[in-house]
Design the sequence.
């Protein structure tokens, strides 16, 4: 039986997730809770190696999807499940909703294949809550241009990110109880306020 809570954070590149995860992490720690902060792809030494390949090397979408799930399998087994069993809160910057949004929504990969991999790798594990930072690709692109050089995913077209955004919103609609959608175009401090107000109901 898992005692901890698994929270994931999603949104297109440039949505401003990091600042908000920082704020939630601080808020939970202040309440004396153990927090494990992690990310996908990555989260383990092998996962970080896979991440480097995924962000830099050109590959077909099937190989890409399998690598995301390879990284995820390692992440679940070595980090997420042990932490949840200890009673920790696991905050993961991205998880399987990203595969549905980027590989299925963005690149037309077959959702039935993703479902098979999801069952294989996760069994019954699903996030307790997922925070979706929703923002237009135009505003997100402006933020990214100021912040850093684009990786392989960030260099995709505006149209690609429009499809990714729609796929996220579609998933949020289908699992309305799991998702908390925030308008990520707002001022960061007002997003934090909304997030922490919502988080009170998670404790
Ligand atoms: P992320 O860590 O959010 O990127 P950054 O640190 O540069 O903000 O994620 C890396 C990229 O991988 C991001 O563009 C989204 C993409 N991604 C997928 O396409 N599918 C997935 O399943 C996951 C987890 C991420």
Sequence:
């Amino acid at each position: 039986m898992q005692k901890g809570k698994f929270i994931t954070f999603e949104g297109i590149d440039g949505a401003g997730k990091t600042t908000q995860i920082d704020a939630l992490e601080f808020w939970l720690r202040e309440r004396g809770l153990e927090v494990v902060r992690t990310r996908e792809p990555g989260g383990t030494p092998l996962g970080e190696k896979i991440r480097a390949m995924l962000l830099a090397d050109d590959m077909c979408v099937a190989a890409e999807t399998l690598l995301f799930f390879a990284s995820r399998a390692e992440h679940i087994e070595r980090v997420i499940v042990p932490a949840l069993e200890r009673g920790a809160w696991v905050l993961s910057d991205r998880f399987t909703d990203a595969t549905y949004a980027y590989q299925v929504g963005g690149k037309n990969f077959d959702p039935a294949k993703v479902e098979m991999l999801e069952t294989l790798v996760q069994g019954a594990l699903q996030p307790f809550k997922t925070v979706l930072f929703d923002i237009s690709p135009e505003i997100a692109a402006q933020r990214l241009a100021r912040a850093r050089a684009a990786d392989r995913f960030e260099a995709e077209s505006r149209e690609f990110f429009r499809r990714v955004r729609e796929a996220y919103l579609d998933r949020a609609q289908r699992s309305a109880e799991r998702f908390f959608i925030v308008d990520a175009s707002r001022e960061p401090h007002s997003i934090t306020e909304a997030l922490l107000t919502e988080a009170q109901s998670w404790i």
User: Anything to note?
Assistant: The longest strand covers residues 5-11. The mean pLDDT is 96.
